[in-house]
Amino acid sequence: MEEKRKKILVGVNTLTAVSQPIYSNHCQFWYRLGRSYPQFDFMLNNPRRMSIDNMRNMTAKVALENDVDYILFIDDDVLVPIDTLGRLLACDADIAAGWTLIRGYPYKNMFFKYTDDTKQALTNWQEPVKNERGLFEVDAVGFSCCLIKVEHMKKVPQPYFVTGPYNTEDIYYCIKALRDVPGTKIVVDPAVLTSHILGLEAIDPITRDAYKRYFETLYPEVINQVDKPEENPIQKAQYGKEGDKSYEDMIEEIFGTPVNR
Question: How many domains does the chain have?
Answer without folding.
Answer: 2
